[in-house]
Each structure stands twice: as structure tokens, then as C-alpha cells.
Amino acid sequence: MSEIKRLRKMADKIYAKMENMQRLTDSELKGKTDEFKLRLKNGETVDQIMPDAYAAVGEAAYRSIGLRPYKVQIMGAIALNEGKIAEQKTGEGKTLTASMPAYLNALEGKGVHIVTVNDYLAERDAEDIGRIHRFMGLTVGCILKTTSPEEKKKEYAKDITYITNTELGFDYLRDNMAQRMEDKMQRGFHFCIIDEVDSVLIDEARTPLIVSGNSGKSTKLYIACNELAKQLEKGEVTELSKVDLMAGERPEETGDYTVDEEHRIVTLTLQGIKKCEKYFGIDNLADREYTELYHNILAALKAHNLMKKDKDYVVKNGEVLIVDSFTGRIQPGRRYSDGLHQALEAKEGVEVKEETSTYATVTYQNFFNKYDKKCGMTGTASTERKEFKDIYHMSVVKIPTNKPVQRVDESDKMFLTRQSKFKAVVDEIKKTHETGQPILVGTSTIQDSEILDKMLKEEGLPHTVLNAKFLEKEAEIIAKAGTKGSITIATNMAGRGTDIKLDDDARAAGGLKVIGTQRHESRRIDNQLKGRSGRQGDPGESIFFLSLDDEVLRLYGSERMKNMLSLAGMKNEESLENGTVNKFVKKAQTVIEDNNFGARKNVLKFDKVNNEQRELIYAERDAILEKADTRSTMVTMIEDSINMVIDKHAPDKKVTDAQYQEIRKEIEVLVHGIKSPEYEPNMKKKRLSELYINAAKDKYVDREREWPDVNVFREFERQIILRCIDIKWMQHINDLEILRQNIALVGYGQKDPAIVYKLKAFDMFNKMSDEIKTDSVYTLFSSRLKSSAANNGAV
Questions:
Q1: Where are the alpha helices (DSSP H) in 85-195?
Q2: Is 387 within 8 Å of 202 (Cβ atoms)?
Q3: DSSP annotation of 350
Q4: CB-CB contact of 73 with 96 (8 Å)
Q5: Which pLDDT tens digit goes with each residue over 169-178?
Q6: Per-residue pLDDT at 162 exceeds 60
Q7: Which of 116, 355, 418, 463 could form a disulfide linkage to 121, CB 3.0–4.6 angstroms apart?
Q8: Beta-bridge mates of residue 705
Q9: C-alpha to C-alpha distance for 438 and 454, rounded to whole angstroms
Q10: How far is 651 from 465, CA to CA, in rounded Å?
Q11: Which of 114-128, 669-683, 748-762 has the lowest mean pLDDT?
Q12: This prediction's pTM
């Protein structure tokens, strides 16, 4: 039996049960919640009670918000409970689909997180869909950027919590920086439903979540690198055949640096390296001490060659603000890492803000894989099904639409140049506008939306523009985009979290016409744009206008095709519409998608090591936070620290007088005020260790007695250990980033860089763990803090 047939059969049974639920009174229907919880307590599983639970919550939806789920929504809900991704077209009611698995899994009492892409959607769905769950006696929470830590803890404790992916991830990092157990907000990761799952787990996953603070470094280096970047000349790399490469031939380089736009890499040539060394007055840029300088030079070159204003970022009120390339939305508060943001600030002549140091970081891939069970919904997931399976272990199920899709998707129209393409787009808009059919024009950049804005003004066509510069008006603009005769120009932001509803006149005129002005590097984004039209059986159209100058096509051999078409006599104003165009576009997009997947997979190979270490350090922190008595932990740290000093200076079984003197010096610094034992001729290392450990324990008891309240001393001790863990972990994160950069810079021949990284990172972690112990011991004994100070709030 096919997957869809299986889901449909199960949905039919649930729908039949829903009819039985209609006979119940409100009180009887609400009572089902306690009945289901009891069944779970008596040994039934979530899957076993699912049919009854879905039927109950489906009827509750009708009584609370006036909506009864369609069978296709129930099919999607079944797939979600199975930990899959339900691909449902725009307008098919994903939020109502999610209400069923959210209710079902919340019955276990471990919490359900419903993850959305922005605060507006989280608040809207918590209010609207939350009415269903509150009707059934469950508690519903909502967490926004403005929610205080105290309120967050209460909201996380509720049965179902609506929250954005960024806030959820950052709260995880903040919890693992908490100084007291009661300061933690989250209560675990049981079950989550991710709305717009491809946006969160694919698009957002390119950038890790980072909690950071000022590093104290000067910003002058960025300005100097920016001036240097303006002086360096861009060159070209001569492509060699496979035969030449196998024969050991090197590509011929020209200029000071080369740019690989396809893989977004900038490389200095030998000539460029010499110019950089001369500019900064150094001998060898490849020396380890110049790693940061080398990195900042590359960041400046990337800023000038790969980052485009009004596409990748905007400058607003003297600030460089990131524009999400998939949604077209500005990302306030987010900054590019690795010095790229400072390089952009230097390029644009605005204030260069101080570089930050990373306190804590996690990738979305590793964070969401912490959940016992996760699932997701989106209108577009099939093109990335391999990545969902490989990285997140989630399969994609395409759910049928409730009504057949009536939208007509016309063939792409290919033009030789951007100018002729935009002229054709305006002509198409004029022609369509005369019929009264509403039009949504999708652009991939702010710059393109402004070009069309100017052209339409010259034609006297009334229209509205929605891009990152006019974000405040988004809801108002989208609300009017489905009215008769409306023309809306929008960057990709129109594709997410908004619903374009047609009025009757617009429906009679043919429904929404979507005009794409170029293909995006991801087919999903194109499908999202098309999906704004033809919801729930509405009429509609879509058509894409392309040119061989478009960035996606330009990077993949469009010059060759342009020459062919020119030789064939094709004129600028003419368009080409055939299977060859479609194949060429699909190939270009597939190559980019594969490259991006490869890049994310490569990042994950390195972050897997970081994640293993993060889990260990966070578990150690939790153990300290949860421990009522940290005495045994500190005593073990004292023993280990003393043995480390002795092992370092006396590798053999016996200790010489000279070795003893070195050991004595170091331990007397480590344990302030300790009385060293007398040296004995031919002294055994084990004997010296026992004497020192006993002396240190005596000193520890003395330190403890200085505090009349032993509980306050325990808290003082706990804070010392936590602080040492946090400081060392923060340094370690930054050291790992430097290690990764060095491995990428140096290369290791036939060795897999990820394996080299893992081995070196393992040694670094062990060294950090040892330093946490010695730093904790040193701080405990050297601190002059007494109980009087502690009782005044110094702890």
C-alpha cells in the first residue's frame, strides 16, 4: 500500500470517529483529555490513542474556532505524529493540521514546542489555534523576543508553547550559561512541530546561533584591510583540463586575488600575498601569528566582491543590516561572523563596531536533533528531501490538496539581457492590469524591486512595493495584494507567513497572477512564490521572466548560451520558450542546491566534534548546578590538580630533589598557604602525592571553617567552578574556530581535514578540562573572600 493510501485510510477512520464526537456535550468532549491521560498512564502509547485523540480535537476545533479539519489535514497530522515532514501547499491550513499532533503529544505532560519563523505568527497561532487546546483543558504558552526570563520559564512549563526558532535556540544557550538551577527556563526537548520547516532547518541552518560579547579588540585593522582591498586587483584563473591537472600543472594566476562566485571563495595569488606583506610590513603572511590578519584581508575582499548592497545587506541609519536571501526580510540584531560584518561596515564607511567573542554557540542541525521526536510542515520540501533524511532523519510526505490546483504555470521566457527582460515584465504587467487581474511581481533583490518601481511609475501604473526597506507595511500591503487591479512588487518576503486572499472581482478576473523576475538559487523559493496563487482551488497564473544576465544563470555557463543564441540571430527584445531553457535553468539550480548542501554538510562534520564537546561540558555544568554539596567535586579537583603537577615534573616512579623543588614551587602557588612536606631521599611519587593531598585537604578544611555558614561556602565554591568552566569553554570555542581556519588555510594533503580537526580538538578539550580543575583550585585558595563579604552579596 502506498504512503498516501495508508494515510487516507487512517484519516477515514478518524473522520468517522469525529462524527461520533459530535454527539458529546462540551463537558463530555473536554473530559476526553483526562480519559486519554489515564489511558497513557495505564500503558497505552501515543500512537494507540491517536485516532480517538485526533477525532476529539478535530471536533473541539469546530466548537472553538468554527473549523473542522479536512481529511487531507488529518493525513498531514498523522504524518507529523510519525516524525515526518508534511508537504502541504499554501492555503491548505497547516496551522490547523498542527493542532492535532500538538494536542496528542502534549497529553504526555513533557511539553510540546511549536516553532514558527517570526513573533507575529507565534502570537497569532497561540491565540487562534490555542483556543482549541484551551477548550480541551490544556495550557498554551507563547514566547516572544520581549518576554522576560521569569515569564519564559512559566510559558515553557505549559503543555504547548509557541516560539520562534531563534528564541528557542538562544534560550537553550542562555540556560547553559545559568549560574543557578532555578534560573534555567527550559524543561527539556520532548516533541516539536516546526512550521516552515525548510526555512528553519535548511535556510536558517547555514548560520549557527551565537551568544557573544565584546572582545576588546581594536577595529582599526578592519579599516586598514578595507583600504588594502581597494588597492588590490582582481585576477582570473586559467582553467586546466583534467589531464593537465593530473600531470601536476598549476593554473596560471593573474592579478592579486581571484574570486570563485559559485563557491563564494576569495583566494590571494602569490603576487597578492607579496603586496599584503609589503603593505603591513611583515615577512610571511602564512605564519601562524598572522592568521587573524590573513582572515581579515580575505573578509575585506569578500565584502567588496561577493557581498552586494541591497541584496545581501542594506545600510539604514548608519548601520549595516543583513537581508535574509530567502525571505527578503531584514534580520535585526544578527551580524555576520568571522569579521565579515566589520569588513562590510568599513566598506560602507559607517562606524565599525567592535568584534565579538563567542560565549556559546550551536547549529540548528545539532540543536533540533536533541528532541525525542520532531516533525515539520511546509509547502516546499521535496527538493531537499535528501538533506532532511541525511541530517535530520526525517522523511517527506507530499499531502494531496483539499481541492484540485487550478493555477496555470506558464513556461519560462528567456531573454538575452536584463534590460530586455525588465521591459517585457512591464509590458506583461500593463497587459494584465487592463483585465483587472491582481498581480504579484516577485524579485530576488531590493535593487530589482526598485528598478521595476521606477519603470512602473514612468508608465503611470499604480502599484505598491514590499521589500526590506518597507517591512513595517508588510501586513497592510499583503492584505491588499488580492484585490482587483492591484499590482504588488515584492522581494521573497511575500512567500512566508502571509495569506493573499482574493476578493470576488479578482477571482472573476482570473485570480492572482504571479510574475517571477528571475529564478532563485533554490527551487523551493520559486515554488513558494508560485504558491501564493491558486490556494484552495482558486484560479491563478504564474510565469517567470529570465535573462542570461541573471546571477543564477550567469554562474553556470550562460555566456556560452548567449553566444549561441546571438549567432542564431536572436534579438534582445525576443524571448525563448522551450525545453532547452527549462533544462538549463533546472541544471543551474540543481548544481547550486548540491553545492549549498555540500557546504552545510561540511560545516556539520566540524560541528559534530564541537557538539560532542558541548554536550559534555553542559552535562558537567548541570551536574554542578544540581549538586547540593560540591565538596566531593572540589576535593577530586584538588587531588587531580596536585597529581598533574607531580606527573609533569616527575615522569618516573621516584622524585629527585630537583624535581621536588619544581613541584613545591608550583603547588604552593596552586594551593595558597599549603605547608609542603619535607623531601625524603629516593622519595616515591605516590608517597609525595599522598602527603601533598593530605596537606591540601587540611588547608581546604581551614578554608571551609573561615565561613560560619557552610551552605554559603558551598554556593561560593559552586560559583568558582561554574565561572572557571564558562571562561575556559569560551576560550575553547574561539580556539576551535582558529583551529578550523588554520586547517582550511594549511590543508593536510590526503588527510581528511575533519579527522585532523577532531584529533586536535580532542587534545585541546582534555587540556581545557585539566585547566578547569587547576583554575578552580587556585581560585578557591587564593580568593580573599570571606563569609561576611559573601553575605553582603559578593557571591
A1: 94-106, 119-128, 130-135, 149-156, 165-175
A2: yes
A3: S
A4: yes
A5: 999 999 999 9
A6: yes
A7: 116
A8: none
A9: 19
A10: 74
A11: 748-762
A12: 0.84
